[in-house]
Amino acid sequence: MTIKNLLFAVILLVSCSMITSCATIIGGTRYNAKVYVPNHPDAKIRYQGLQRGEGEANFRVKRKDANQFSVTIEKDGCATITRDFTKRKFRGWSLVGTLVTWTWLVGPVPVPFGVILDGATGSWWSPDSSEKGVTKNSIKDYSYRIDYTGCETEQRGEYEIY
Q: Number of folded domains in the chain?
């Protein structure tokens, strides 16, 4: 391999690592998670050990971690619960788009740079909206409803057992 060819290969690889691929462009490497606890506006919502809000919280989550999404709900006078979401969905259309648009020829060899990039970033994944409590609002926005059972709930100014 000549120095010219080696330099070309290095520049090509560096350039590819700095650009994004189909799944990364369309959906990103993260999605917006909205977690809400109906009828419990003062319930603390924790994700990865940090309090993200009370009653409702919005934050970003890595797509590749969609099947390891876990939140903890705490409220004074109530039991602490942890809700795990363990399903994720493969976004197959993004793989097809990546193969078609981000495969380059390096000499006579086709190299799927987009597949490598999307696979490394986890952009092919999203939460599975068939899992109880998960709602897909858009390609980048998902809601998680946490039913906080076993704790008093405030409804219409009265307290009832939920």
A: 1
